[in-house]
Design a protein that fits this description.
single chain; 400 residues; alpha/beta; 6-stranded parallel beta sheet; 15 helices; 37% helix; 25% strand; binds L-homoserine
Amino acid sequence: MNNKKLIKIGLFGFGTVGHGLYQLLHRVPEASLVISRVCVRDVTRHQEETPELIFTSNPREVLDDPEINLIVELIDDADAAYRIVTDALRRRLPVVTGNKKMLAHHLPELIELQKEMKTPLLYDASACGSIPVIRNLEEYYDNDLQISVKGILNGSCNFILSKIFNEGMDHAESLRLARELGFLESDPTLDLDGWDSLFKLVILAMHAFGVYVEPEKVFCYGITHMNDHDIRFAREKGRRFKLLGLAEKLPDNRLTLSVLPHLISRNKFIYSCEDEFNGVVIKGLFYGKQFLVGRGAGGHPTSSAVLSDISAIRYDYFYRYKRMECAGPLPQFSNDISFRAYVRYNTEDDLDLMQFEEIYERYVSDDYHYAVGRLNLRRLLDIREHLAERKIFVAAYPPD
Ligand code: HSE
């Protein structure tokens, strides 16, 4: 793209991030970007509220507009987003998207399509809001040194956990506040049950290790079933729960991915990452640990990542997926990993279901049962639905 050329954006979606982008473009007029058309479901409402923009509910009117030279896709519906993004790329229209679910399910195919069409698809806004994690993994951490990428990838859950731990707010109230502030997905179970973190983790693993792992293969468990007993347990141990996504390369070149709450002790970077902030710890040989932190949710932080991608397209930036072409063999994904966990359960039957490899500690009273021991990730993946049905709470409990 000629970097002096006026960028005329065809925007899909005018929710928290789309609207944030519109406001942001008012503040950076020198960027010579205009939103030419916006495709939304409810044209009337948006047209009344923002009369200076042209709204349509017909995607064709955006994609067929010969003036439009860049598509920004910021809708909720992953299937519709997939159709828009692939259609645009096939027309050689560069695309910026924030749709992590769509990306996590279609990355390999989208990588091929970008190559075939020689047209960029950028998506830094899809993972960790305003933190340029993907761009950093691509450009700086593009060698074999990386051991793990671990982080708070969901702003809403971190916000809720912060309100509970720091301000003693209850779950319902903190959830209401997170919704009011525009942090939650329109289906909040995506946040609370860990799926949103999982989609982001799949994207990050692709860029950090060059390996695509289908989301269905990864154990993912959120904070829905956390209760006051768990919070008290964490406080007594001087720890806090944080919902973490973890991608880790083991010494035998296996790669493991998981999303679950972790009991985090005070001496960890992530312990003091609060509210809607996301924090990503990148660990590598020779350099140890590095910590990237910033706002991970909300219209303005996320739309600033969208703006950064739009600017990158102006300068013909592509993700090159360098890790996929590294010299040695790519790591092999595996769930045959065990780790130390805290489990609050209800019946002896629940405990049997977990198939602990070892139990270090158990507590049983009338209304509170917990065990600390070693669990296997594959087993957890197999029984994930039962865990949720039985309202069992599981968290990683790493030794200090
Ligand atoms: N619901 C998401 C979050 C929005 O809370 O992190 C940003 O991806």
